[in-house]
Amino acid sequence: MKTPTIEWTDALRLDFDPMDNAHRTFVTLLAIAQTADDAALAPSWQAVIKHTQQHFACEDHWMRESHFANASNHGLQHRLVLNVMREGLAMAQAGDKQALRAMTHELASWFVKHTQSLDAALALHMRRFPALAAEA
């Protein structure tokens, strides 16, 4: 059995439950994709994409509604990452599973950096907007 390169740790915790809960789910889904056999790879990646779309949409909504200063850069990363994730799915569905397998590891690395920088700033900002955060 393959070992995932991502797991939930306190280093990913932002002390902001709506984001921490979504991030825990993301880590779980990505770990499943990282360890999936060839038959389960594309479906497990689709689950990662679906969750990520929902989570990014929530963050994007928060940033818009709260007038978050770094919204354009943060949102741009969301759009770029989702586009790459969709391309990885298309490659796997066309038979190139190795490209998607590499992507699962690259996404894990990106996620840690994104969480500890851009998401950490957003979580700190969102603590000032509990009613908005409660909509998640």
From TrEMBL:
CDD domains: Hemerythrin. It comes from the Bacteria. Keywords: Iron, Metal-binding. GO terms for molecular function: metal ion binding. SUPFAM superfamilies: Hemerythrin-like. The keyword Metal-binding applies. Coiled coil: none annotated. Belongs to the hemerythrin family. This is Hemerythrin. It comes from Hydrogenophaga crassostreae.
